[in-house]
């Protein structure tokens, strides 16, 4: 999610190539196609997290809750803008 919302800002600052740049170069995809691809990956990751939380596992629930909470924080910080890097944003 970070690379999707912060892609253009990072490129302006001259940072290293993001996953967006790498995917576009490797597969010849447009920026829009690449954003759509990785948004689908984020959606699928949420589905995987939710599905796995309902399965019996040997991992204690308090550990799984920490992973879920980290994913929630990342989702909140990078949902619409780079809320971590941009100090003047909504976050």
UniProtKB/TrEMBL annotation:
<dbReference type="Pfam" id="PF03936">
    <property type="entry name" value="Terpene_synth_C"/>
</dbReference>
<dbReference type="GO" id="GO:0016114">
    <property type="term" value="P:terpenoid biosynthetic process"/>
</dbReference>
<dbReference type="InterPro" id="IPR005630">
    <property type="entry name" value="Terpene_synthase_metal-bd"/>
</dbReference>
<dbReference type="GO" id="GO:0000287">
    <property type="term" value="F:magnesium ion binding"/>
</dbReference>
<dbReference type="InterPro" id="IPR008949">
    <property type="entry name" value="Isoprenoid_synthase_dom_sf"/>
</dbReference>
<dbReference type="InterPro" id="IPR050148">
    <property type="entry name" value="Terpene_synthase-like"/>
</dbReference>
<dbReference type="GO" id="GO:0010333">
    <property type="term" value="F:terpene synthase activity"/>
</dbReference>
<protein>
    <submittedName>
        <fullName>Epidermal germacrene C synthase</fullName>
    </submittedName>
</protein>
<keyword id="KW-0479">Metal-binding</keyword>
<feature type="domain" description="Terpene synthase metal-binding">
    <location>
        <begin position="1"/>
        <end position="48"/>
    </location>
</feature>
